[in-house]
Amino acid sequence: MPSTRPTRKATGTKAAPAPSKKVVPAPAKKAVVAPKSKKRTVEEARDESDDEFGEVAIDMASDDDEEDMDGDDESDDAEDFPEEGEEGQDMSAADLEEDEDEDSEGSYMDGDSIVDSQEELDDEDAEDEEDEESDFDDLVEDDIDPNFGHNLNEPLAPESDYNPIIREYPEIDPVYDSDSSTEENENTVGNIPMHWYDDYPHIGYDIDGKKIMRPATGDELDKFLSTMDDPDSWLSAHNYKEGQDVKLSAEELEIIRRLEGNRIPDADYNPYEDQVEFFSSKTEIMPLSAAPEPKRRFIPSKHEAKRIMKIVRAIREGRIVPRKSGYVPPKPKYYNLWNDAEDKPREEHVMHITAPKMKLPTHDESYNPPAEYLPTEEEIKEWNEMDKEDRPKNYLPQKYNALRNVPGYGQFIQERFERCLDLYLAPRVRKNRLNIDPESLIPKLPSPRDLQPFPTRLAIEFLGHEGRVRSISVDPTGLWMASGSDDKTVRIWEISTGRCMATYHLDELVTSVVWGPNKDVAVLAVACGYKVGLILPEKLFSPELTLHSEEYLKAGFANVATGEPNPKAQWKQPTPAEFEKGIRVWVHLQKPVKQVTWHRKGDYFSTVAPDANNSAVLIHQLTKHQTQQPFKKTKGAVQRVMFHPTKPMFFVATQRYVRQYNLQRQELVKTMQTGVKWISSLDVHPAGDNLIIGSYDKRLCWFDLDLSSKPYKTLRYHQQAIRSVAYHKRYPLFASCADDGNVQIFHGMVYNDLLQNPLIVPVKILKNVHQRVEALGALCVEWHPTQPWLISSGADHTIKLFS
What we know:
alpha+beta, 4-stranded antiparallel sheet, 23% strand
């Protein structure tokens, strides 16, 4: 540790000038004393004489000074003063004063101590002066001449600034524990959590292994009182390792302030110092190393040349492929140990398919299952009587008190063998799972508000029938509606008021009623049993229209008398009683008629009798009273037929297919594969390029005739069998009804652009329109010809109009 020496302040005080007379000092005595004891003596003497010096600054000598002092002590313990006549003795008072000022200022600024002696010595060489000062520090009282630096003729004061009294202290033996009173017991437990010693009376161990007892600590009130009494309590920090408060010094507080301000703790440290280029590109005159350049720096290495040629030969032979530009090294592969499904197939074989995972055990497979999983005696008996193939599980849950009581599983080998057979013999197919957002598959449909008008509410209810209303039809003018029911009646209603204008009683159940499409002829076709009747409602139309329609219906009887009759269909006149009712013509067939449909011109109509086999479909001409069979042989049981609205095409729907025929060329144009089990209804779009079908297996299929023979859209919104489907003749609407009693309304826009597909949007569900009676609900739907009104009939004997 560097020694401390008292130094005189350099502010305003000057040493007394030396006398001009030459001073001849006495020869100094050489005292041989141990260096350690001398330093100790001088230090203790200076510590005790601090009060005698007054305002004297204490400066710590540097390590270099201490080394210099040690070196001087080794060479010679004390320096002989120069004799009279030697160089450096003759000095004037002015020179001494000037040198003293320079030495005091320089030594004080540089950190070197100033010798407090009788006068300041001057030397031309600064290093010799420091050596002399260090030598003087090591001298004891006997080695110092009391008359040095003063006039020998003048007496000296017994004690003054120039003649300090040096006290001697007994020599201290520099061994361990020689001065234990100034040392502290350092806790040597190391860097451990101190809360481990919370339950012990000591807080650690000193260097001798002795316990360091925990210092007495008061409660929180004592801490508060001590904090209030001590104004410097905020300057202290608690040392948990020693168990006591330590007062922080000014340097430590400055470090804390700098750390809080995000600054470097050391104030003297400059992080932006200029870089010292020890090794640069410039050739220095005095290099750091004067060693000659090694031989390996300017002679090529033969060993490296051999290795390079070895790599070059490997590249030429193709054993090493150079990396291409932009090469990215492969990333290390990490495998998820807990992932059940393999991320990628194994590379052993292309056709390898991972074996499926076994099902995880359930609660009833536990050795101690809950009580609700344990079978009863009846279930155990029933399980034992079953065959092994019929048993839902090949084990019965059992309860054991401990896992050690569970016996071995007897079917383990058999089950392992069967699983191996399943893995080896059962074919497996790889199915790639597509991670697709389900919402992205739903097409963006317009809002139903933008697709109005369409029927939304019940407007009129037609009551009067006493049986199921199987068929309804609206005349071309939109004023009248006809309905046929199982009560063997045909009723004609006024649509705007809901009044029943006429009722026709027939002999058989009415299966179909259809108004003629020609506005110039008021005729209604009714199918009941084995015959089809043509009715002229005289009271509903004007006399001119009634007269024209009468002549139109009677014109065909003249051709019947001259032509050959068709045995499959007979045209007959009604009886006078039937004529009074309004029936004008009867057409008798061989089998019951299920459907009647008109040609767009109103001269032809077709009938369907599914039980008639090859003659199930017949086409009748009203003006000539002739009947013809378009097909010699029908393929399947015919369900529905329709004429094309604009072309000479004819659609025939069998049980599973829809066929399109050209009547002029008498050939099959297209066969539509519906994909349903049983077709129930059929309708053609007014433009003629699209058609819809309903089926008993709850499906509605839309066909685009120009696109494909398979359905463009298949809709399944009903819960029961679909009974009827219908297009609107003016608005882009179509509807369907089913046995669930609901009516579905759709927006179906067909574009003139062939590149744009039809737009189908469900807009309204009319729920519980008709009550279910004997598993039958809504039986028929029909659109108003000019208004967006929908009329439906059902098995609950009612007819309802929605607007």
